[in-house]
Amino acid sequence: MKDLDLAKSILGMEIHRDVKGGRLWLTQGKYARKVLEKFNMLDTKPVSTPLMNHFKHQFSIAFYPLDVAEKGLMSKVPYDSAVGTLMYLMVCTRPDIAYALGKVSKYMANPEKVHWEAVKWIMRYIKGTMGYGLLFDAHSPQAKTLVGFVDSDYAQDLDTRQSTIDYVMTMGGGCIM
Question: Fewer beta carbons within 10 Å, N or C terminal of the chain?
């Protein structure tokens, strides 16, 4: 058996440690860069939010009639691949893009141009936040405490008028769920 020292990466996540400070960071900067390269978004202008407000009301199924020409164009767009690639980023280290990805993933079977524009917006957000990740701090007041946050809205789904609820769980200051 051989001691390989502390792990520096796992499953595409970089592991950064401050042993004296009791902190551990998980980031995916290299993976984020590969994602942007794959979808030709590396030279794009960064934005400061994962989903711009003007997209919100354009996510209704009834908002856009089916257009045969646009449907043909959208069949050539790697929509499902882009959303799936971003979901891996979200699941591992980027809970900040969860809401936006939840919105665009509803249209995997029949995306319209506005949905593709929203996916590209998320990638522009990733471009400006490639260094973001999860921080776990052993000295934070919540280091050994499971903390939960819940939010809901009333009838805000534009298609079904259903209410939604979401939650976040943290430990050591870092998101775990």
Answer: N
